[in-house]
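Sequence in, structure out.
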Amino acid sequence: MLSQIHIPQRIESMSRTVNPRSKAAQLSALACLLIVLLSSAPLLAKETVQIGGTGTAIGVMKLLGAAYEKKNPGVQIEVLPSMGTPGGIKAALDGAIGLAVAGRSLNGEESKAGALGVEVARTPFIFVTDEKNPAHSLTAQELVNIYSLKTTNWPNGSSVRLVLRPARETSSTILKAISPEMEQDMAIALAKEGMVFAATDQDSAEAVAKMPGSLGASTLTQVLTEKLPVKVLAFNGLTPSVRGLADGSYALFKPIILVTTARTTAAARQFAAFVSSAEGRAILENSGNFTGPFK
């Protein structure tokens, strides 16, 4: 180990093996010794910033992290598997991770505990099915009929197989807000025995991709960044897009909110600043996100 080497003794010992009249030989020996010593020293550890929260943002955060690491080789951005918005915020408040990513606005308890949220993007909230399903679109009324279990088949006669999320999860909240009817019908679907439930955004995407006739909710940024093998359905005649969010023609979206706390490190705050920079916004926009201005 480097700490066990007494450098003066080593230099003196090596200097005795060379011609004392040859300064070139002495310098050469000293250079060799320094090379050996430096190669024995441990590499400097990178500072790691851990990011966790909504599964929606995992893919785009990895892209942002990779871009940031290229500009800041002394920092490693580690994006953790989905722990959900509540889990990410709690972990940030506890100091277990450097930065949380939320898919909804902070609630009163989270704000009171010291969490601060900054909305950096919005991604279209979309409906997806398996790639082999011949269906291409869905209307709000058709959605209501499916969730009320009045419609149980696709137009080609195949069974509709809903992939649900827990009642208090953000995706379920967005669905309920589509209409008063939808809120009532969500309760019917959630109470039905034998329904398929997914705990995370990634679990939901996997279930949709594998089940023939599936129908689930996702986001455009997740589909694009994770290259999901699913079919994105048009909703009310509109194809989900960043442009649609920008001009207001497509109304359904999920926010991407960076959450900091009093325990957030300087390195994590610097990464958060990068996400909001021109370069970070460009990565977000190219990954299925609208970066504002928000109305």
